[in-house]
Amino acid sequence: xxxxxxxxxxxxxxxxxxxxxxxxxxxxxxxxxxxTLKPGEIQSFGTGVxxxxxxxxxxxxxxxxGLAYKHRVSLLNGIGTIDSDxxxxxxxxxxxxxxxxxxxxxxxRIAQGIVARYEHVDFEEVxxxxxxxxxxxxxxxxxxx
Length: 145
Hints:
34% strand, globular, four-stranded antiparallel sheet, Deoxyuridine 5'-Triphosphate Nucleotidohydrolase, Chain A, 11 strands, three-stranded antiparallel sheet, mainly beta, 5% helix
């Protein structure tokens, strides 16, 4: 699939897959100098790029597992969605969940993206839903093993 991408700044870095088998491509911070994220702090980082997605597709922005595991830095909102009709610069909301300062360097890989197909649905209001073995069993209802 071809996706159009624009660099809003000459020095912006086009997202790239790091390995042949990678599902996600990495977004880099487009900042002019290092920025320190204090413990508990939230900061929006521009990527310097925007995309034009076909209708019926979204770009999911996700945390990088290495940042989350090693430094406790991840996306504030879990997964961010870039809609097919958005044409602005993509930004990444990072939060430092750790206990130490974390420095984001210019060009650092700060998030990953995956393009996914979606469907629009027509909701049909009903008076009841069909029964299943699980039915309304919620959190933890299926056990651990």
